[in-house]
């Protein structure tokens, strides 16, 4: 056990830049889940509407998706460190604005604040992923992605569970204040990183980029990424694999409905289900790194196994007799989800050249968040028009259909020779425009 943990401990001990980023993201993720649990509980209390609650996730993901093409260009054109610090500090007053929503008439403040924070997230998250290969050595990139993937899971588990307790005992405003403070602390930690977040381009490379890179605007950004993905079936498969899960992620909204209205456990019940999701997402990357590997066929098999795990677990979720069994099924589902996120992110980081990596990850995250937004909206409607159970099973069906289509798309990879999940970056970079 200690030998398996040694590479992760060595990375945290020896690389201060990664350590600061890791702690910053731990803090920020914790604050996010404090606020999300409290906000879902607040909206359900004030409106008694699953559709209204769905707007929380729809706005978070929809605005993220809309802002992503521009954010990707910024991540490749501007200083990534300054961009991430700005995104953190700008979200502090916005997060505090959530404390002003006290009635149905002031819920618009929540939705506006959520939209502005989603813009900040659309800048911060892809920029962080794009910068990662420059903050760690090549041999440590896999371990760094496992730790960051698990950081999201750890803080979802801890933040959601404690956030539910804080909202229930100290009031929801306390959770919103914690979220604001988390952005400030994250920004301060990133300010102290001295290692470069991006590579310096040689003059010839910079001239080539200026002449041939047509990705300066939102549409140009998308064209660059599509051209990049068109060069390899494996790269295209990695780029859209998160969306398989995104189309059925409306099931996450049902945590609030099941926790509050089916199991009658209020904010604590909502927090427990989110915590189970986080625990699964925490362990999933470690399992994937240990047993799946990073060659093409192994990664495809790992993602396909994740799809099956998610679909089966959530198909059983509405049948749960207690919230504890429901939480166990959520945990199992997100073992698969966490594994898939690690595999696709790591593969793209190795394959994408630094000068377009921000746009690649903005496209990747934007595509999945757009699918999540639409899925969540449909899920909220189905829960009100029919039942929460019907909503969950519809989401499972969407995941199954998307996963089946992805399987047929990747069959040539499974039948082909094994190899690393990347291609020479220089070849892609040369034709990036």
- End-to-end Cα distance, whole Å, is 46 Å
Shape: globular
CATH superfamily grouping: MFS general substrate transporter like domains
CATH fold description:
Growth Hormone, Chain: A
**In which range does the helix fraction lie?**
over 70%
Low-confidence stretches: 202-212, 421-433
* Assembly annotation: single chain
What Rg is obtained from the alpha carbons, in whole angstroms? 21 Å
Rounded mean pLDDT is: 82
Q: Which architecture would the CATH scheme give at its second level?
A: Up-down Bundle
Strand content: under 5%
Instruction: Count the E strands.
Output: 0
Alpha-beta classification: mainly alpha
Biggest β-sheet strands, sense, barrel: none
Written description of the protein model:
This protein has 433 residues and is mainly α. The protein has a single domain, classed as Up-down Bundle (Growth Hormone, Chain: A), CATH 1.20.1250.20. The protein contains 17 helices and no strands. It is globular.
Structure described in brief:
The protein has about 425 residues and is an all-alpha fold. It contains 17 helices and no strands. It has a single domain, classed as Growth Hormone, Chain: A.
Q: What is this structure's SSE topology?
A:
Layout lengths: L1 H13 L1 H32 L2 H28 L2 H17 L10 H29 L5 H29 L2 H20 L11 H10 L5 H13 L2 H14 L7 H9 L3 H26 L4 H21 L6 H29 L2 H32 L2 H28 L9 H6 L3
Helix pairs in contact: 2-3, 2-5, 2-6, 2-7, 2-12, 3-5, 3-9, 3-15, 4-5, 4-7, 5-15, 6-7, 6-12, 6-14, 9-10, 9-15, 10-13, 10-14, 10-15, 10-16, 11-12, 12-14, 13-14, 13-16, 15-16
Which characteristics define this entry?
single chain; 433 residues; mainly alpha; Growth Hormone, Chain: A; 17 helices; 0% strand
């Amino acid at each position: 056990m200690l030998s398996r943990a040694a590479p992760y401990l060595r990375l945290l001990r020896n690389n201060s830049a990664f350590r600061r980023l890791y702690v910053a993201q731990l803090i920020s993720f914790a604050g996010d889940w404090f606020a999300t649990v409290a906000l879902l509980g607040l909206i359900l209390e004030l409106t008694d509407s699953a559709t209204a609650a769905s707007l929380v996730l729809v706005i978070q993901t929809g605005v993220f998706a809309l802002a992503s093409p521009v954010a990707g260009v910024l991540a490749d054109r501007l200083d990534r460190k300054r961009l991430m610090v700005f995104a953190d500090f700008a979200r502090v007053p916005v997060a505090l604005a959530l404390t002003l929503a006290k009635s149905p008439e002031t819920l618009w403040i929540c939705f506006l604040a959520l939209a502005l924070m989603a813009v900040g997230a659309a800048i911060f998250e892809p920029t962080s992923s794009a910068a990662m290969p420059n903050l760690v050595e090549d041999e440590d990139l896999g371990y760094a992605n496992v730790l960051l993937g698990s950081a999201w899971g750890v803080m979802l588990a801890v933040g959601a569970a404690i956030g539910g307790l804080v909202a229930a005992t100290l009031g929801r405003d306390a959770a919103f204040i914690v979220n604001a403070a988390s952005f400030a602390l994250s920004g301060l930690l990133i300010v102290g990183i001295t290692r470069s977040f991006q590579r310096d381009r040689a003059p010839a490379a910079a001239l080539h980029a200026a002449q041939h890179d047509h990705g300066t605007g939102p549409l140009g950004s998308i064209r660059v990424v599509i051209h990049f993905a068109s060069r390899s079936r494996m790269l295209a498969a990695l780029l859209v694999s998160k969306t398989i899960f995104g189309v059925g992620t409306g099931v996450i909204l049902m945590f609030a409905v099941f926790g509050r209205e089916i199991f009658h456990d209020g904010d604590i019940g909502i927090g427990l289900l989110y915590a189970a999701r986080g625990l699964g997402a925490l362990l999933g990357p470690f399992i994937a790194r240990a047993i799946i590997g990073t060659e093409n066929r192994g990664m495809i098999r790992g993602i396909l196994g994740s799809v099956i795990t998610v679909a089966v677990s959530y198909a059983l979720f509405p049948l749960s007799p207690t919230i504890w069994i429901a939480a166990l099924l959520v945990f199992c589902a997100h073992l698969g989800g966490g594994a898939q996120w690690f595999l696709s992110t790591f593969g793209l980081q190795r394959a994408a050249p630094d000068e377009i990596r921000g746009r690649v990850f903005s496209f990747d995250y934007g595509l999945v968040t757009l699918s999540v937004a639409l899925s969540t909206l449909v899920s909220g409607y189905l829960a009100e028009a029919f039942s929460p159970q019907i909503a969950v099973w519809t989401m499972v069906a969407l995941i199954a259909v998307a996963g089946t289509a992805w399987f047929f798309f990747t069959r040539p990879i499974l039948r082909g020779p094994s190899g690393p999940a990347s291609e020479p970056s220089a070849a892609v970079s040369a034709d990036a425009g």
